[in-house]
Design a protein that fits this description.
The complex is a heterodimer of chains A (about 190) and B (about 140). Chain A has about 190 residues and is mainly alpha-helical. Chain A has 10 helices and no strands. Chain A is about 75% helix and about 0% strand. In chain A, helix 1 packs across helix 2 and helix 2 crosses helix 4. Classes of the chains: A mainly alpha (about 190), B mainly alpha (about 140). Chain B: It comes from Acididesulfobacillus acetoxydans.
């Protein structure tokens, strides 16, 4: 059953538990899908989903009925993802001595290994691999534009960057992804 | 192969974000530049794949339901905490601090049944600890 944002807020006023449950069911797929495509890791995506909804429930009482929930869910999801990238990077540098090379190698990829690139024949896999390696902001801009079909203005608003920055992020991201996919021979007939 | 055209303009052409004057210029340029025609073809293929929704589809894991339980338990208003709850909170914090992923186990407020349910799907190391937790709760609640 799909319940509108307005209905959810009305229900929440009367019964918090029920309201939150409806809100979670309505937006869990939205949040998880962005988080998963951003991290390409199930555990990370679950962690992020949890963080997003905890943040939502914390500010739920201040929410005005005349606003719709979706823009707010979008913004929190994007912020959590971008901050998550920052946390993760710090964690990696801290654990560098523990993770004996191999994990870090997985994370940053192996650019000199030309043989491994031919393994990526599948479009989806190749695309995912290329997106995964983009810098956080480029990755997010690309996902919002192409996966979510957002307009540039909306991306600028949600990511809290100037319109020109969105364009630059997208230009760079697409260029990198294209080079990677050409290298994988994805479009060769 | 040394065309100086800024290839970014070709992305903008496909996105429709190109300035009208530049658009005329680029269209004229494409008539005579093989390199840019090749680049445009690749970009069209890229855009096709980037806008293809099926490339981003994910299956929703069952853990999402456990997160829901946890969030709802967190949100449930807590009047004065009972001794049992406080002790369990401390225990939960200890477990969390020791690096166990108890985050996905619903809070105790939703009852032991839920803890047991979610534990079924959990790794064995967590199973042991959570069983202890369930026992502890029973003990204190019995008091
Ligand atoms: Zn050219």
């Amino acid at each position: 059953m799909d319940v509108s944002d307005a209905a959810i807020l009305k229900i929440y006023k009367k019964n918090k538990h029920q309201g939150l449950e409806l809100l979670y069911d309505r937006y869990k797929k939205y949040v998880y899908t962005i988080a998963y495509n951003y991290t390409h890791n199930k555990e990370d995506a679950l962690d992020l989903t949890q963080e997003v909804f905890i943040s939502i429930l914390k500010s739920m009482d201040n929410f005005k009925e005349e606003f719709s929930i979706l823009p707010w869910v979008k913004r929190i999801t994007v912020n959590k993802c971008l901050n998550f990238a920052r946390d993760k990077k710090e964690a990696v540098s801290l654990n560098q001595t523990v993770a004996a090379g191999s994990e870090i190698q997985d994370l940053i990829g192996a650019p000199n290994n030309t043989e491994s690139t031919t393994l990526y024949q599948d479009t989806r896999q190749s695309l995912a691999k290329a997106i995964k390696e983009l810098p956080p902001q480029e990755r997010m801009a690309l996902l919002l534009r192409h996966m979510k079909g957002m307009k540039y203005e909306e991306i600028a608003r949600i990511m809290n960057v100037p319109l020109g920055t969105v364009k630059t992020l997208l230009h760079r991201a697409r260029k990198t992804v294209k080079v990677s996919m050409v290298k994988d021979g994805i479009w060769e007939g | 192969m040394d065309c100086k055209l800024d290839k970014v303009l070709l992305q903008d052409l496909l996105e429709g974000t190109i300035d009208p004057v530049e658009k005329l210029f680029v269209e004229e340029h494409l008539k005579t530049c093989r390199e840019c025609r090749q680049e445009l073809t690749e970009l069209k293929l890229l855009f096709w794949d980037l806008f293809d929704k099926s490339n981003y589809e994910v299956s929703l894991p069952s853990e999402l339901d456990q997160i829901k339980d946890l969030i709802l338990a967190n949100a449930a208003e807590q009047p004065a905490k009972s001794t049992a709850e406080i002790i369990c909170d401390i225990q939960r914090q200890n477990i969390r601090a020791s690096g166990m992923f108890l985050d996905y186990v619903p809070g105790l407020k939703t009852g032991n049944m839920l803890v047991k349910e979610s534990v079924k799907a959990a790794p064995s190391a967590m199973l042991r600890i959570s069983k202890g937790l369930v026992k502890a709760t029973k003990f204190f609640l019995a008091k």
